[in-house]
């Protein structure tokens, strides 16, 4: 599915089951056997899974994943600790059952109410959303994980390799910032290694449809200028790695750098807007 193609839940589900010997009916029956109740597919399906609500009052999430894309249960446990509680040649499936977190997804809020016009109330709501996302990130920062020097070395090699690919593929207007980021790679890799949500988008954020405020956790006052610079560099690196390449999916073709053509134009708009335009590009890079 392209970035501009209208989403269809049924088409996404059918595409998933083309990759496995299991059927949708057998998965629904398995969910019923596991938790009872009834089965309702979630409105927006993941690329690598089939997910349903099930159980009494639809209190559980049951997810079926390709065997080649099993979840790391250690990471799931860590997330609970950090965030305080979540013959055909086709492969088999793994099944996961978790408690459902109820709420209104940000995407559903937009579909229901549309993008809010600029007003005093919408600006306050936007600030609250941004603040709460920052609070979520702070929890990871406050729970750093131990990793080996070999792992950091592997990351350095991977980033250098990706840098060369981007320098070859992206237009010349991005080359200075790509080189600048890599010059600060050592300081970037000195930052704490933390738990990462790899699909932190509008489909996976729960919001309150009523105006609300909440306290914030501040870390900025305790950071050195060197650390703040490294964080800024990591933000740019993350943008280059996510928007500068095609989708990184384990069950798809290897990711490649985007091109300045019709297929890559959507991501190119992000790179231009956040890296080159004077109003939005990071200070000092």
Key structural traits:
285 residues; 2 domains; two-stranded antiparallel sheet; 10 helices
Cα radius of gyration in angstroms: 21 Å
The CA-CA distance between the termini, in Å, is 34 Å
Side-by-side strand order of the widest sheet: 1-2-3-4
- Summarize the amount of helix as a percent range: 40-55%
Q: What general form does the structure show?
A: globular
Mean pLDDT: 82
Q: What's the number of structural domains?
A: 2
| Number of helices in the DSSP assignment | 10
Query: How many β-strand runs?
Result: 6
| Major sheet description | 4 strands, antiparallel
Secondary-structure element pattern, one letter each: HHEEEHEEHHHHHEHH
In short:
The protein is an alpha+beta fold and 285 residues long.
